[in-house]
Structures are given as C-alpha cells and as structure tokens.
Amino acid sequence: MYIGQKITSWEFHQLISKGRKSNKALYAPTSAQMKLVDGIYDFYVEQSEHVTFSMTLQTKIVVNREKGLSDKQRINLENDFRIFATRLQRSVWGMAHRRKPKKFSLMLLPTLEGLIFSPEGFRTLHFHVGIGNAPADMTVEKLHKSIKTEWKKASYGRMDIKVKPAGEGWLAYITKEVERGNTQCCDWGNSFVPDFSLLS
Q1: pLDDT-derived band at 185, boundaries 50, 70, 90
Q2: Of 49, 190, 31, whose CA–CA distance to 108 is shortest?
C-alpha cells in the first residue's frame, strides 16, 4: 500500500490478519466496532496523500496488563503531547505559524499504542504520528532534530524517537490497534489537519 492509494476495507483488514492470527490474546472486534474501524480507516486514507513523514515517540509510561492505564494518566499524557505539538509547530514553521496557523501548520495524526492487552505483560506506551504539510525543504534529519528538542521537554517523553519518510505500509502500521478493536487509541484531541485549500 502506498500513500494515497485507495484500497478496500476488506484489503485493509487483511494487511493485519497475520498478526491477529499469531496472537490469541487479541480479541475479534464486533460488527459495530468494525463499522467504526471502517470510518476511522476512511478518514486516514483520505488524509494519506498529504502524509510525508511518520514518527514514533516513546513515553515513560509502562502499562501492566492487569492494571491498564488510568484516566488521569491518559489525560496527562495527551496534554503532554499537546504541549509538545504546539512547540513543534513553532519550531518547524516559526512566525508563519503564528500569522496563519490554518495554512502554515504541520498535519498531525497521532495514535497512542500500547493500551491493548499484551501477552508479554508490560508495554511502553508510545505515539505513532503521521505528519504532513511540512516546509518544502524539510528533511528527515531536520525534522528529527526539531522533534528531539521539543520531545525532550515533555514530562513523559523518553528519548527513543524514530522519524522516517512515510512510505509503503505506514497506514496499516499506525492503525494496527484500531484494526484490533481499540478505537480509543486515536488521539482525536491532538489531531490537526490544516486547510489544504489554502495551499493551492
């Protein structure tokens, strides 16, 4: 699967079916959940043509499979990401972001992974983020430097960061917990899609 390529929901489900079959701890989503999964997937496919980078940000929170993540922890973590995202926007776009944020802003599509049951017992929560609308001269190296500088300031940020061009398979990778029925992993509060009509 490549950026912007339209595939059916059935094909999308097949991309991750091997992982589901190999892990008996993963539960099968209900039909209602699958409808929600399809809606979420359609949204990401619609935005995928604008995604040029993907990043993974590890946090300091390790979830025990028995205790899970408390509401307070999740709120704090999402607030932490929100502050990080604001700083990253200013770092990447500078004064242009302040003047015209609808136009000069990174597109950010974060999902929080590690919430679903794991047979390994302990999982480190981490964000997968699709990034778009970066400046034309942006490189992986420059973006990684800005992300590292700002993520270091985050209360829950751990210096384990991966940034790469968004290529084949990024959509299935960023939504693999959605496919398993965990639709709550989508961080809609911190998702941002700029007004692409202003860029033409």
Answers
A1: confident
A2: 190
